[in-house]
From TrEMBL:
Presence of keyword Hydrolase: yes
Domain spans labelled Serine/threonine specific protein phosphatases: 75-80
Reaction(s) the record says it catalyses: O-phospho-L-threonyl-[protein] + H2O = L-threonyl-[protein] + phosphate
UniProt keyword terms in alphabetical order: Hydrolase
GO molecular function, a single term: calmodulin-dependent protein phosphatase activity
Domain of life assignment: Eukaryota
GO biological process: calcineurin-mediated signaling
Transmembrane feature ranges: none
Protein name, as recorded: Serine/threonine-protein phosphatase
SUPFAM superfamilies recorded: Metallo-dependent phosphatases
UniProt record similarity statement: Belongs to the PPP phosphatase family.
Amino acid sequence: MSESNLLELVDPVTIVGDIHGQFYDMLRIFDLGGSFDSTKYLFLGDYVDRGSFSIEVILLLYSIKLNYPKTVFLLRGNHECRQMSSFFNFRSECLYKYDLEVYDLVMDSFDAMPIACIVNNKFIGVHGGISPELMSLQDIIDLQRVTEPPRSGLFCDLLWSDPVDNDSGQCSEKFKSNEVRGCSFYYGVAAVNSFLKKNKLLSVIRAHEVQIDGYKMHKWNGSTGFPVVITIFSAPNYCDVYNNKGAVVKFNNNVLNIQQYNYTVHPYILPNFMDIFNWSIPFVIEKVLEMLYQIVKTSDEEIIENSDKKVVIEYNHPKAEIFRNKVRAVSKMMKMLKTLREDKEIIMQLKGLCPDNKIPRGLLQQGRDAIIGAVDTFNKAKEWDLENEKRPQ
């Protein structure tokens, strides 16, 4: 709690966006960003959830912070709270790798994180963006931050708001309700220009949204004007399916540069920290179904081959049709289990993008091509993942 809600830094500074438990990609960031002795690092939040190495990310960042308290700075993101980390996988990861006490201690540390930062007296770094309740920088300083972020108000908006998704920055209202997030607002060029002018700033640097190139320059003031909003996202190949690049912002001698990078291969982790027994169940079930199918199929054929007239009449009885339906059902289930076994990894990736970890109804029966096609592009991945962008109730 020795740091203010609103930090102030001067370059050289490397600004990092969402990491989301991608530990090995974070190591790549340190290779690109510069030495901790000579370069400051400003992280914009979202260290945990979605990836499988969130606790490793946090423990390493805290270790570096303890050793370099004057050059490493960690802002709070919308996932640094109890609600989001329980809804997603950070809490379960902590319970699997450590225990509830570790999780609770990490949550307490999240409560103490600063909220925003002024860089070179010209840029404001924050996780989400601005708010209709943000008139001056003093409003951020005056916030009570040691709490769970509320569902509305300035604190919520700083973590959850988004710029409008169009090239002009035009918005039907200065601040428009954000239906995708289920809370906070969209802000456009009018709101941003008003805030920047009042506070004598040049641009908002924020994270919070995956970008195909790892960053996006919102040039709402024309091609010759400086971008009034810069979105930076530092988790390449987000969720192992987006195929996006990661990026960081590097300030040095008042010059801003964007450094892009591709994802780093990480050790394979069974989905949802599953043990090998549960992982193998589809293989076992498939073999059991094959045996059952052969049994019922053989019985069906024997009835036909060995029947006299009386038995044939009985075979045409409604009970015989029920028997045939059971054979067909077993056959259909065998196909689904075969798909599960052969494409289990990509199915688990797809489940991770869908609400409640459930893949779309009927997709398994469509076969392998349909499953691969569901996650083969950035835009399709964003479409599947849209529900996960909303704040849980």
